[in-house]
Structures are given as structure tokens and as C-alpha cells.
Amino acid sequence: MTGPGVVAWIRDQLRRRIRTNLSRCPYPVTLIMDSQSVKGASTVSRATRGFGPATLINGRKRHVAVDTKGSPVMIMVTPADMQDRDAARELLWRLRLTHPRVTQLWADSAYAGKLVDWAEDLLRITLKTVSRLKDAKGFVVLPRRWRVERTLGWIMNAPRNARDYEHLPQRSEAHLNWSLITLMTRRLLRLNSWSRRD
Predict the structure, then answer these.
(1) 92-127 pLDDT per residue, tens
(2) Cα separation of 99 and 77, whole Å?
(3) Residue 136's pLDDT is what?
(4) Are 85 and 110 in contact (CB under 8 A)?
(5) CA atoms 165, 180, 16, 32: torsion sign
(6) Phi and psi at residue 81, in whole multiples of 5°?
(7) pLDDT tens-digit profile of 15-66?
(8) Is 30 exposed, middle or buried (CB count within 10 Å of its CB: 0-12, 13-18, 19+)?
(9) Residue 198 has pLDDT above 80, yes or no
(10) DSSP string, 89-117
(11) What is the DSSP string of the chain?
């Protein structure tokens, strides 16, 4: 069976190939992060699920960090009742250990507050928030944030991902990585076919 480290390695290699084909540095320094709550099936253990009061969802929450092209860099799964700011501490810590070149992250206002100072002081990561305009109505495309929202939309294109079925969060993370690996492979094939036409 393929371990989670191998899955992450494949994901990272694909992302580097995509970035290189787009004439970008293979190692991103700026990321965008957001979260997505999904219902948990009966196979999800009680210890790893929760009820999110904001979304009214009983299940899990996916915390995703992507590069400026929308390719995944980090995926973390928690109970749905975990606050984004609390989960972000763990996600940012993992990013610092595994992707030391990252220096800046964009996120929504749910990540504002003490987390900004914590990330800067302890991890030397600049966390910037992008908020909706006060008079905005309905869906609004926000600068930078739309890239991570698009990636979350890509995840939901697979019906299997509309709900979490995995007993353990680590298996859920591996499953989501495999889903995005499939999408990244298709994207890389398209990029290669375009370059051959030129």
C-alpha cells in the first residue's frame, strides 16, 4: 500500500513540473489557503468528526493551501467544529517544516487576529487577509482567494468527494491528494500538448 509520504511526494513533483512548464520557479513562496466543510458518512469515527456551527455540517473540514496557480501544496483534514484559526496553526507549522521557502499566505478574514502575529513571530510567514466588500451581494470573486476556491471546486467535481467516507483523517487526506494528482496529471498533459504545438 502506498504511504502518505509517497502520495505527497507525487503531488509535489507534479506541481513542480506544472510550475516549470509555466516558466515559474518550481518552489512556491506565496500560497493561498481556505477550508471546506463536508458531511461525514457513517464510516467516519465519532472521535474525528464534529458539528460546525457556522456551516451546520456534521462531518469534517478540509484545510487546503495552494500556490498562485491553484496547485495543491498542503491538505489537512480536521473535525468540522475546529475553528479555521486553530487548524491554521497546525497547517502553517507543517508548511514551515516541509516547504521552508514559503514566506507569504493569503486567506480570508476567518484567519485574522492573533494568528497573523503568531505566524510572523514564530514561523516568519506573512499572513495577509482578503475580505469581502461590505456592500457586496451574492457571490463575489475576490483577488487571490479565487484560486484556492477554484481548487476546492475541482475537488467537489468528483462525486466521491462530496462526502467524507474515510475512518481516519489521514486516509481522507491521502484520498484528496490522489484526486488532485489526477487533475494535475491532466493539466500537465494539456500543458505539454500546447508546448508541442508551439
Answers:
(1) 999 999 999 999 999 988 899 999 999 999 999 999
(2) 19
(3) 65
(4) yes
(5) negative
(6) -85, 0
(7) 999 999 999 999 999 999 999 999 999 999 999 999 998 889 999 999 999 9
(8) middle
(9) no
(10) HHHHHHHHHH-TT--EEEE-GGG-SHHHH
(11) ---HHHHHHHHHHHHHHHHHHTTS-SS-SEEEEEEEEEEE-TTS-GGG-EEETTTTEEEEEEEEEEETTS-EEEEEEEETTS-HHHHHHHHHHHHHHH-TT--EEEE-GGG-SHHHHHIIIII--EEEE----TT--S--PPTTHHHHHHHHHHHHTSGGGGEE--SSHHHHHHHHHHHHHHHHHHHHHHHHHHHHH-
The length of the chain, given as a count of residues? 198
Output b/e per residue, 70-81; b: 16+ Cβ within 10 A: bbbbbbbbbbbb
Global pTM reads 0.88
Instruction: Provide the grid cell at 181.
Output: 494528482
Query: Which domains, from first to last, does the chain contain?
Result: 4-130+142-187 (3.30.420.10)
Is the C-alpha dihedral spanning 182, 190, 34, 51 positive or negative? negative
Give residue 1's pLDDT: 41
Dist. CA 39–CA 162, nearest whole Å: 8
Q: Can you say how many angstroms the Cα of residue 2 is from the centroid of all Cα atoms in its chain?
A: 21
